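Quick one, T. Sequence first:
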Amino acid sequence: MEARRYLGVTETPAGSNRGIEVDYFIRECGLDPKLGLPWCAAFVGQIGRQALGTAWVVPRTASVAAIAAWPKHLFTGPIVGDLFLLWHEDLGRFAHVGFVEKVTPGVTIGFATIEGNTNPGGSREGYGVFRRERAAVGKTRFVRWTEEGVI
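Structure tokens:
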């Protein structure tokens, strides 16, 4: 439930990777908000820490690559509470992360998300915290951990 509290939070000004909440997410990773860093991973880490405290096992980082390298296994299908990782072909790495809020099984598995540093169009470099609808296609992967209820 914790991530839902931040729905609608936006950067100030838009496109700056800054703002009261965004600066907070970045600062909690031990980084300087003045750097204007992408913040989807920092959002995930801070939400996990707020919800579970020291029981949050995923690295608190501003690096999607660090989150992708953390688990022993990445899953190809989601369950509620997983973190999703989106692959960026041009960068040759996972470049966006967020929470799986709901799963819709079908021919293509769909999943609803709550994610930071996105926009209503689904950009990995957006301006706020939004709900999105995505599909588990291509190189999309999921990080599974043992606790439930963070979203």
